[in-house]
Amino acid sequence: MHRLMVRGVVRGAAASIDSSSRWVLPGPKLLHTARPCLSDAGSSGDRRTQSPETSASSAAAPSTVDSADKNKSNSERERSQPTTAAATASTLSDSFGRFHSYLRISLTERCNLRCKYCMPADGVQLTQKQQLLTSAEVLQLASLFVAEGVRKIRLTGGEPTVRKDLTEIVAQLKATNPLLESVGITTNGLMLTRQLVGLQRAGLDALNVSLDTLRAARYEQITRRKGWDRVMAGIDLAIQLGYRPKVNCVLMKGFNEDEICDFVELTRDRNVDVRFIEYMPFTGNRWDTDKMVPYRAMLETIRARYPAFEALPNGPNDTSKAYRVPGYRGQMGFITSMTEHFCGSCNRLRITADGNLKVCLFGNTEVSLRDALRSPGCSEDDLRCLISAAVKRKKKQHAGMLNLSQMENRPMILIGG
Questions:
Q1: Which of 24, 59, 357, 404 lies in disulfide reach of 367, CB 3.0 to 4.6 Å?
Q2: What is the mean pLDDT of residues 287-295?
Q3: Which domain holds residue 322?
């Protein structure tokens, strides 16, 4: 009987400590007929303090990308949903019939910024290197998930561009998974001017850039680092290369909500998709309801200046509510995780850099796929059984705002946001 670890992560603001529980897989005769059952236990892992990394460059891998593909919307790229019977039996379907075709994989816990809503000013405790997924393990897990129905993979961090082998990972994902429709990255944009051409040659399909202000001085306040002009140069390079980058902006009341219309203007001549994200509670970011700018308040601000601001169609699994100003090249979007959750259509799963599967961004129970991979005698069927058990335990929806603000969860940087 295999014993594979599941970490229920409990992290406080002052320290990052894992408390664990175990998943027990059924014996070989029951492996295909019974679901894993649960029991509780506890353990903790060694951690060390993060030090900043400011750069990493990747060698270009030979490949080509169809630039026109970059402009397809999420809904056009969505994989068709399985039938009811198939969904019930699928490894990646939960007990509410949601099929998960989108996987986010964190490649590192390291970052070259210190954004206030993402991590504490003094950084976070980093997992020891040997406890992180290797590149081979990342590719092995990705192939398993693609075989089970994942069609979209996004590489995150920390900051994925600090990985020297990022380009190679993208190239290998594209080369070894013909059923994979999209490989994207979420980045802070600091390294794009150095790395994006190589990433495009490797087959990168999509690009998300985190940028919370269009003012250089304010950028330093938010990120505790310089580099705003480099990020803007990276966004413009992405557009020139045929991408339609998504620019993710976390709005915070009393800090950057006065730039809402400035971001709208960014879409006038640039083919970008600016997406405002409601401020969300995570360990270490000093979350409170007074900082959050609700989606409806954003809409009122924009429509006061742009009365013709219009809604656009959304795909069945889109997390962003799409809008645009008529005649502008780009578009806007609103990710309303706090005020109008989209749990009912969620098709996303996450793997952290240390190999834990999170079935919900706001959940604090994690299943260690790393421990399973490294367990002697653990087969792909065992992995599928473990993944299926975790997915089928996914809740119907996350807790409300007030409950989330009191729930202990990893800092965003350790989740892979």
A1: 357
A2: 74
A3: 93-415
CA distances from 117 to 174, 189, 313 (A): 33, 17, 30
The 10s digit of each residue's pLDDT in 132-176 is 999 999 999 999 999 999 999 999 988 999 999 999 999 999 999
Total domains, the chain = 1
Give domain status of residue 9, yes or no. Answer: no
Q: What is the CATH number of the domain that holds 137?
A: 3.20.20.70
Q: Let me know: does 78 contact 317? Beta carbons within 8 Å.
A: yes
Confidence (pLDDT) at 248 = 95
Model confidence pTM above 0.90: no
Find the helix or strand (DSSP H, E) in which 217 lies.
Answer: helix 216-223
DSSP 14: S
**Are 132 and 110 a contacting pair, CB within 8 Å?**
no
DSSP 8-state secondary structure symbol assigned to residue 292? B
Q: Is residue 381 part of a domain?
A: yes
d(CA 285, CA 212): 15
> Could you tell me if 22 and 3 are in contact, meaning their C-beta atoms sit under 8 angstroms apart?
yes
Residue 43 covered by a domain = no
Structure tokens at 183: 């490989």
Q: How far apart are the first and last CA of the chain?
A: 35
